[in-house]
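Hey team,

Filing this mostly as a record. A colleague (T.K.) asked me to run one chain through the structure pipeline before their review meeting, and I want the input and output archived in the tracker in case anyone asks later how it was produced. No errors, nothing strange. Just documentation.

Input sequence:
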Amino acid sequence: MIAALLLWRALLPTPARAAFELRDASPAALGHVSTDGAWFPFEEEGGGWRGGMSRASLYDADGLTHTELDAALCGSRYVCAADYVTTVSPGARESAARLQIRERAARSVSLALRVERLDFSPDEGERWGGWTLGALARGALGRPLAAWIGADRILESPTLGRESVPGSLELGAAIRSEAATLAILDRWDPEGAHAPRLTLEVPLGDAARLVLGRGSAPGRIGAALSVRVGGLEVAWGRLDYAFGGTLTAVRVGIGRKEKRRPALPEQDELLGAQVSG
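Output structure:
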């Protein structure tokens, strides 16, 4: 059913959208050269919780601001993340509330769902909005390899369809090690345009993390650095487009990380039997 919807949405021509193009301008998103809400289905190390606020500067333009509040709870089986984004431009205000639930079960395929509430408020004219639903499936191809297919806004309220807020299809793959994570992904909109990117995420000890990314269509590079001291985390990110536009963002957050307990020998034997079976 989902595959049929994806094909239908990918082939259906729609006018170019104007609203809700800028979905995420947090430091992490800019480092991954992604402002389109791309899926990054990597497991957080251990459990715990976090929350924070990001503020972005967009193209040094007056009257254009982007603010994001985020929170996440990481359990033993699921990750639940929520964020609220507002983008204010001359003459209009956009807001998006998102809830994402993702499996963390140790098995070959894990699933995720994303629900959004979008609202557009022009200074002159009628306010409109609606709901969207997205889904993702991630496959573990051995211990260091992972691949995923995600679909954003495959189902949406009729109002959003009339206002040309289309969905997109995403494919990605990553190879992980203790030293770094290398990922490649691409997204297609219903008109066939795509935005490939390559990212490298490098942990700098236990307290810092560096993200570097390069993308095309349009050409762009990104970088982000996050530093954690105790329960406080500060992050900075920048995205530069080949045509000269620049986005920068700062995030301040708090949280608590719970390290995973070492597996008991019996658990290791059981996991090995599940993988081999």
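Quick notes for T.K.: The helical segments are 2-11, 27-31, 158-162, 265-276. The chain is about 10% helix and 55% strand.
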